[in-house]
Design goal:
four-stranded parallel sheet; Aldehyde Dehydrogenase, Chain A, domain 2; alpha/beta; Aldehyde Dehydrogenase, Chain A, domain 1
């Protein structure tokens, strides 16, 4: 860890001053290398998938791990999009002049060295490496044992991009061991790593938050809610609810709880529940909704649980205030959606909740940096300091003040 950290710290001083053109060239080069070497990446991914199946990894987690040509094309597109984005380093956030003549500018600057600890999603290797480089940082990546081979193959492509652009290979380093002791070493790497970003399940993120001695950007869980208001459009509601749960049940933006207003239920019945059941989703519920054939009785722990599977909790609520109260009690401040045509109700929902992402008439599966136009994300932060929501290149910067005078002295 000391060796990795020292190399990263040295590389960080180079990439912090690198031109936008050089960083973009490195990302374009990485994209080209990844596409040219895609068969090698797929072969490596097959090794990971075979090992995952042998360990009995669940279907949703295997889906996170799986790569195919279309997903590799998506990673390539993300690298190119990040390359084309505006460089956040050096951006003047604010500029003002004091009565004494001092000119003060607040300017974006790199954080330094970022440590990313992630589990089964090999695309994080490219996403985190690209966003760190774009924001002028060096990064140390510690992928999970599930994605070990895939991450190594993708990392080779990122290094090819760096060296091809004349930037140090150490700007994006991958921990080349499955030894979990390296996780503890990263969490205690004060002076070597400036911030840790965990990307994974509750167990990993909880461990990082408990044991880290360096700052952490993290969310513990993605307990996302969809509330179907009494003034929701039926067709929109059916589309959004089904997509929010079933598109990719294993991602942190998947809906885990459906709240249905009594007025909606009176007008439209249990159509949202029936749609989910028809799509193969297990619906855990209570009271009136248990009359719907195929539903399962919920236990208290189902409300406020991140299933990451084709399972959802559902409950009837009496109005938007009751929905807000439920979310405040059971949510994780990640992403919540309201389905309504009533502007005042939507405004009340937005004002009443402080989750990192709030949506109206849109699927919670849009809780993604790529969908926000960031090219990719390094994670969804639900903390209240520095970064919230999708963490893109801009969120991986801090700022400094540049102060200019003309022989100015303080009386």
């Amino acid at each position: 860890m000391a060796d990795l950290g020292a190399r990263a710290r040295s590389a960080a001083t180079v990439v912090a001053r690198a031109s936008s053109e050089r960083k973009a060239a490195a990302l374009i080069g990485a994209a080209h290398a990844l596409w040219e070497r895609r068969q090698a990446v797929l072969d490596a991914n097959c090794l990971d998938l075979d090992a995952a199946e042998g360990r009995g990894l669940g279907a949703a987690l295997r889906d996170r791990l799986r790569l195919d040509e279309a997903r590799i094309a998506g990673i390539v597109d993300s690298l190119r999009l990040i390359a084309e984005q505006k460089d956040p380093v050096g951006e003047v956030i604010a500029d003002w002049t004091r009565p004494n003549g001092l000119r003060i500018r607040r300017v974006r600057t790199a954080l330094g060295v970022i440590g990313v600890i992630y589990e089964s999603r090999p695309n994080v290797t490219a996403d985190a490496g690209a966003l760190a480089l774009k924001s002028g940082n060096a990064v140390i990546l510690r992928g999970g044992s599930e994605s070990f081979e895939s991450s190594a193959a993708i990392h080779d492509c990122m290094v090819a991009g760096l060296t091809g652009a004349g930037l140090p290979a150490e700007a994006i380093q991958l921990v080349a061991t499955r030894d979990r002791a390296m996780v503890s070493a990263m969490l205690g790497a004060v002076g070597l790593i400036d911030v840790i970003v965990p990307r994974g399940g509750k167990g990993l993120v909880g461990l990082v938050q408990r044991e880290a001695r360096v700052p952490v950007f993290a969310h513990l869980e993605g307990i996302c809610h969809v509330y179907a208001d009494g003034d929701a459009d039926l067709d929109k509601a059916r589309r959004v609810v089904l997509n929010a749960k079933t598109r990719r049940p294993g991602v942190c933006g998947a809906a885990e709880c459906l709240l249905i207003d009594w007025r909606f239920y009176t007008r439209h019945g249990a159509v949202l529940i029936e749609d989910l059941l028809a799509a193969g989703v297990e619906v855990r519920t209570e009271g009136e909704l248990l009359k719907v054939p195929g539903t399962v009785a919920a236990v208290p722990g189902d409300f406020g649980h991140e299933f990451l599977d084709r399972i959802i909790a559902a409950r009837l609520v009496d109005g938007v205030d009751a929905a807000i109260a439920h979310i405040r009690r059971h949510g994780s401040e990640h992403t919540e959606a309201i389905l309504t045509e009533n502007d005042a109700t939507a405004a009340r929902f937005f004002a009443g909740l402080d989750s990192a992402i709030l949506m109206r008439n849109a699927s919670t599966q849009f809780a993604d940096g790529g969908e926000f136009g960031m090219g990719a994300e390094i994670g969804i932060a639900t903390g209240r300091l520095h970064a919230r929501g999708p963490v893109g290149a801009e969120q991986l910067t801090t700022f400094k003040y540049l102060v200019e005078g003309d022989g100015t002295i303080r009386p």
